[in-house]
Write a structure and sequence with these properties.
By secondary structure, the chain is of the alpha/beta class. It has one domain: Aldolase class I (TIM Barrel). It contains twelve helices and eleven strands. A nine-stranded parallel β-sheet has the order 2-1-11-10-9-6-5-4-3. A two-stranded antiparallel sheet has the order 7-8. The protein binds 3-hydroxy-3-methylglutaryl-coenzyme A and magnesium ion (MG).
Length: about 325
């Protein structure tokens, strides 16, 4: 018996022709690892992801090193990626201090990260939602003065481990604030993976009604309840063409206990390939990279596609 290495292509007409994958493995994936991953391993991981055809790879965060020790090597890692001329390498910057660090190294794509709920704003940023927006405002202004592209993450868009279900209007209000502040792009985070497809459609519709166009929206699903792919399909059917994913399904969030890994990039590429949607990603090279990274981390990849393609037990 042979395991298929690619799905049969059956085109779907109502989907974007192309999807830009925003790869978050090196940041969202590695920020949650218990053992410190050496900088050289991270640099090799990012180079291999670029060789597999990923063109947007979130490299690291310029946050407080005590808050996220795993990414404390940002100053050493980022310069080791400078040969990747054709790859966008966004980085997270929570405040002016983070922006100054990123600009000093020549970063040109940054992301601020807000929360739709007060509990997560406090846990992740030590601020209320309003205080965190006040913190981001000068960051966005100064980054744009430097010609940078700014993404605004919004976490807990569907549910929050402390507050439960999050009302759609509450999400829309902070999303609007990020766009009005000058963010070029919004990424809707299902930080703890509780969204279901019609909830995704309802939020996207409400954002459109509030004036936030679908072309500015990306989706960021964690796969805690196995819903990340179905939620992605709902977003694609709504016209979204930027999807965040993490190679091998690495990930989580150190400040939200119930967050598990992101949607695995391989699982996403498998589905998009079958649907006839272009990603530019070589699935074989990507899978080999995640299998290599799993060896570095000493545990198997949680991605079903990686396991199937590398003939591991499911
Ligand atoms: P704070 O403790 O309130 O900081 O943390 P502060 O502003 O009071 O400053 C205290 C000290 O930290 C000062 O030093 C600052 O200079 C220093 P001192 O004067 O005491 O010597 N400091 C910094 N040092 C280096 N780099 C910086 C920096 N900022 C301040 N950037 C802070 C506030 C925002 C810094 C902190 O809460 C923090 O770093 N949080 C980051 C948390 C994080 O990275 N979480 C994970 C990313 S979010 C996520 O994963 C969700 C996402 O994937 C989407 C989804 O799934 O939903 C994006
Ligand atoms: Mg995340």
């Amino acid at each position: 018996m042979t395991t298929p290495s690619l799905p049969m292509v059956v085109r779907a007409e109502n989907l974007p022709a192309q999807v830009r994958i925003h790869e978050v493995g090196p940041r969202d994936g590695l920020q949650n690892e218990k053992s410190l991953v050496p900088t050289e391993v991270k640099a090799e991981f990012i180079h291999r992801l670029a060789e597999a055809g990923l063109t947007t790879i979130e490299a690291t965060s310029f946050v407080h090193p005590k808050w996220v020790p795993q990414l404390a090597d940002a100053e050493t890692l980022f310069p080791a990626l400078q040969d990747l001329e054709n790859t966008d390498l966004p980085v997270l910057v929570p405040n002016e201090r983070g922006l100054t660090r990123a600009l000093a190294l020549g970063a040109s794509r940054m992301a601020v990260f807000a929360s739709a709920t007060e509990s997560f704003a406090k846990a992740n940023l030590n601020r209320t939602v309003a205080e965190s927006l006040d913190m981001f405002d000068p960051v966005v202004t100064r980054a744009k003065e430097h010609g940078a592209h700014i993404r605004g993450y919004l976490s807990m868009c569907f549910g929050d481990p402390w507050e439960g279900a999050v009302p759609v209007p509450q999400v829309v209000s902070t999303a609007k604030a990020l766009i009005d502040m000058g963010c070029d792009e919004l990424s809707l985070g299902d930080t703890i993976g509780v969204a279901t497809p019609a909830h995704v459609t309802a939020l996207l519709t409400a954002l459109n009604e509030a004036g936030v166009g679908t072309h500015r929206i990306g989706v960021h699903f964690h796969d805690t309840y196995g819903q990340a792919l179905s939620n992605t399909l709902a977003a694609l059917q709504h016209g979204v063409s930027t999807v965040d994913a993490s190679a091998g399904g690495l990930g989580g969030c150190p400040y939200a206990k119930s967050a598990t890994g992101n949607l695995a990039t391989e699982d996403l590429v498998w589905m998009l390939r079958g649907l006839g949607v272009e990603t530019g990603v070589d699935l074989g090279r990507l899978t080999a990279t995640s299998a290599w990274m799993a060896e570095q981390l000493g545990r198997p990849s949680p991605s079903r596609t990686v396991r199937a393609l590398t003939h591991q037990e499911q």
